[in-house]
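ok so I'm stuck.
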Amino acid sequence: SINKDTQVYKNKIIRRLKNKLLKLWSIKVKERAGNKCETPGCNATEKINAHHIETYMMHPGLRYDLRNGVAACPGCHKFFKNSWHKSFIFAYKHMTQYRQEDLQYLANYKDGNEELTIEKLEQKIKEMEAIKFPEQPNPAIQNQQASSVLPQQK
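replied:
not stuck anymore, here's the structure
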């Protein structure tokens, strides 16, 4: 039988919950953006990544914070000259133009010493699962629906 009181067992559960919460964070960042790249002028909807604006290595408390996330296609995320990973100026311009409140929040953020217990992680997961974003209309579907309600030409 498994002794559920050991620290090894608890650490395994905590690791599993952290992974679940990180996956959920990624899903919610992408849902908020309508599952498309947030970079203006980029209309990519395939292979969208959730990117941490401030690295969670330096700010562990921001790891699961939706205000610290942006949805980006692989090019805008890492590979283009103007991408979140390669250009501070690109990231700063985006944040000042489109996410001013989140930029202020991140600039003023102070890490606490919050220990993520099993109970706290389970609560954060519940809270994250409850977040709903309005559905982003798909223009292709809208155009199809609009054309089906137009009177038929004779």
